[in-house]
Design brief:
This protein has 128 residues and is mostly helical. It has helices at 4-24, 38-59, 92-107, 116-127; strands at residues 30-31, 34-35, 67-71, 81-85. Helix 1 (4-24) crosses helix 2 (38-59), helix 1 packs parallel to helix 3 and helix 2 packs parallel to helix 4.
Length: 128
């Protein structure tokens, strides 16, 4: 069985790899006007992408991945999103297809200003 940290590391690597493929194809990702490296894209977009992937799975009635997301009382350096695990049985193969979909439908679409993905999440969490 994979540990949650291992699964989450693999999911970050998936985002990093998808970003790297796009960068090799000539797509640049920006934040505050600065070009980002693939690993920065993977790290910065991990939590909002995981949130949106779980929301997508729930909207499709496939179920969640065992995470509970909330706004942090004190903002982290980039966005005040935090999570806790409600299920300790996350599986990479169950989450990866949804995360890849979120990459193309949110992360890639916000390449000109990666902060846009945080606005997407904020809109859903404020409604919840």
């Amino acid at each position: 069985m994979q540990s949650n940290t291992e699964v989450e590391n693999q999911l970050r690597l998936l985002l990093t790899g998808l970003a790297d493929q796009q960068i090799l194809r000539g797509v640049n990702f920006y934040c505050d006007g600065q070009i980002m490296h693939a690993d920065e894209v993977g790290d910065i977009t991990f939590l909002p992408s995981l949130y949106l992937a779980q929301k997508l799975a729930q909207d499709l009635e496939v179920g969640g991945f065992g995470y509970h997301f909330m706004f942090a009382p004190e903002p982290n350096p980039f966005f005040p999103l935090q999570y806790r695990k409600t299920d300790q049985n996350q599986k990479f193969f169950a989450i990866a297809p949804f995360l890849a979909d979120v990459f193309y439908s949110h992360v890639r679409e916000h390449a000109a200003d990666i902060r846009g993905i945080f606005y997407d999440v904020r809109g859903f969490l404020e409604v919840a």
